[in-house]
Specification:
The protein is α/β, with parallel strands linked by helices and about 150 residues long. About 35% of the residues lie in helices and about 25% in strands. The strands form three sheets. The chain has a five-stranded parallel beta sheet with strand order 4-3-5-7-9, with helices on both faces. It has a two-stranded antiparallel sheet with strand order 1-2. The chain has a two-stranded antiparallel ribbon with strand order 6-8. β3 (about 25-30), α2 and β4 (about 55-60) form a beta-alpha-beta unit. α2 crosses α6 (about 135-145). The longest helix is centred in the middle third of the chain and has 13 residues, at about 75-90.
Length: about 150
């Protein structure tokens, strides 16, 4: 089913918004980012955006998360760590690819990096941009959890 989320249309599984109950706890995995996207995610936790007031939280443990946010193209050394975080996240879980490199990989180094869908087999939400702004990330996340 196609849903309008943020500035573009993405595929949203019918069960994802219903299971989130208007709240979302996410484990962020920096799989090979150049720190641009991570800086924007950190900005979301500040008073300007107040991420938690929207019911969205970053958690240190994948065991307490509803999903995984993948940031950056997945490097050889982070592939196993990302898979471990994904495996430890309880079902049902969401996978969010944040930034162009997480969505498409890094075309400069195709032999040593992967993209999120290639490693985890699914992506529930893609947030495009290089890097996406904090405002864009917040827009996509709030639209995702409020989308019924």
């Amino acid at each position: 089913m196609d849903k309008k989320i943020g500035p573009s249309v993405v595929k949203v599984p019918w069960a994802a918004p219903a299971m989130l109950q208007k709240s979302l706890k996410l484990r962020v995995v920096d799989a090979g980012d150049d720190e641009g996207t991570m800086a924007e995610l950190y900005a979301l936790e500040g008073p300007q955006y107040s991420l938690e007031s929207y019911g969205i939280f970053f958690t240190a443990s994948p065991k307490h998360a509803d999903g995984v946010v993948v940031v950056g193209a997945i490097t050889k050394n982070m592939k196993a760590a990302l898979q471990s975080a994904y495996d430890l996240t309880p079902h049902p879980k969401v996978v969010i690819a944040c930034g162009d490199k997480a969505i498409h990989g890094d075309k400069r180094f195709p032999e040593v990096v992967w993209w999120t869908k290639e490693v985890l087999g699914k992506v529930d939400l893609e947030i495009p941009g290089n890097p996406p702004s904090a405002k864009e990330i917040l827009s996509y996340l709030t639209s995702f959890i409020n989308n019924k």
